């Protein structure tokens, strides 16, 4: 499996506290069947993440994993705040694209998503950047599903947090099933920040919930073929919505 959204780089944003934390996160990921994760530190105003330093930090973590015998590949990326995306240069956008391609992991501004996010996706597309929208479940509001459909029509992929998909009550399961059958669930990611608490660097429980809902093709695609296509920079075609 491939996780496109993690905060595994140590001592950088609100993610892994130190290298030991990063290594523990990596071991959890491998134990869950994950072979590749994107390191996606926050690129937003409340974190001093210097884009120019990210390749060196990623290389250092990859070397530490190899020395520890942990079979996990770290791919490049960043979680770009919608409030800052327009101000980033094309060079910086490319530097924090997932896997070095043209897909940008976009973090919505606080609060419900709306037409302003759709306009931003269009502006990024005009600059040659495709978008993956991070954790839409945290940004529901009036017309939520309509806005999601509009984003998808503009080529945006929707990345849901595996913990959200796996957890919750029957109402949450019903919501996920409806969204998925409406073509509004594409990718699962952990958005893991630390091994000390919060969301674990795991995907299998989210995929298992999708399979339990009868969404077998999506369960596989959301954690395997879909993320692989994003990282390769090739065509991305989510499976047709189930009936």
Fourth-tier CATH superfamily name: Metal-dependent hydrolases
- Binned strand content: 5-15%
> What's the CATH topology label?
TIM Barrel
Output the CATH class name.
Alpha Beta
Tell me the distance between the termini.
Answer: 26 Å
Query: Helix/strand/pairing class, anyone?
Result: alpha/beta
CATH architecture: Alpha-Beta Barrel
User: Which whole number gives the mean pLDDT?
Assistant: 95
Give the fraction of residues assigned to helices. 25-40%
CA-based shape = globular
Radius of gyration: 17 Å
Q: Which H/E pattern describes the elements?
A: EHEEHEEHEHEHEHHEHHH
Number of helices: 10
What ranges have pLDDT less than 50 throughout 5 or more consecutive residues? none
SS elements, strand count: 9
Largest sheet: 6 strands, parallel
Please indicate the count of domains.
1
Spell out the key features of this protein.
TIM Barrel, single chain, three-stranded parallel sheet, 39% helix, 10 helices, alpha/beta, 9 strands, six-stranded parallel sheet, 243 residues
Structure description:
With 243 residues, this protein is of the alpha/beta class. It has a single domain, classed as Metal-dependent hydrolases (TIM Barrel, Alpha-Beta Barrel), CATH 3.20.20. It is 39% helix and 14% strand. The chain contains ten helices and nine strands. The protein has helices spanning 19-31, 54-67, 90-95, 115-126, 144-153, 162-166, 170-181, 204-212, 216-221, 225-232; strands spanning 2-6, 36-39, 42-43, 73-75, 79-81, 103-107, 130-134, 157-161, 187-189. The strands form two sheets. The protein has a six-stranded parallel beta sheet, with helices on both faces. A three-stranded parallel beta sheet has the order 1-2-4, sandwiched between helices. The protein is globular, with a radius of gyration of 17 Å.
């Amino acid at each position: 499996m491939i996780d496109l959204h993690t905060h595994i780089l140590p001592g950088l944003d609100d993610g892994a506290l130190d290298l030991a934390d990063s290594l523990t996160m990596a071991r959890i990921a491998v134990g869950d069947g994950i072979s590749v994760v994107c390191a996606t530190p926050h690129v937003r105003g409340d974190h001093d993440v210097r884009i120019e330093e990210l390749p060196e930090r990623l290389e250092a973590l990859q070397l530490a994993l190899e020395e520890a015998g942990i079979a996990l590949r770290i791919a490049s990326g960043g979680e770009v705040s919608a409030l800052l995306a327009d101000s980033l240069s094309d060079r910086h956008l490319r530097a924090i694209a997932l896997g070095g391609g043209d897909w940008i992991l976009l973090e919505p501004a606080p609060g419900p998503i709306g037409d302003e996010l759709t306009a931003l996706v269009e502006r990024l597309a005009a600059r040659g950047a495709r978008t993956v929208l991070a954790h839409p479940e945290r940004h529901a509001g009036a017309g939520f599903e309509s806005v999601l459909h509009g984003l998808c029509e503009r080529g945006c992929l929707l990345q849901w947090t595996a913990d959200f998909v796996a957890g919750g009550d029957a109402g949450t399961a019903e919501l996920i099933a409806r969204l998925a059958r409406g073509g509004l669930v594409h990718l699962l990611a952990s958005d893991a920040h630390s091994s000390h608490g919060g969301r674990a660097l795991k995907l299998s429980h989210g995929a298992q919930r999708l399979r339990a809902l009868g969404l077998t093709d999506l369960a596989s695609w959301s954690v395997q073929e879909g993320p692989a296509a994003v990282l390769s920079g090739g065509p991305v075609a989510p499976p047709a919505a189930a009936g």
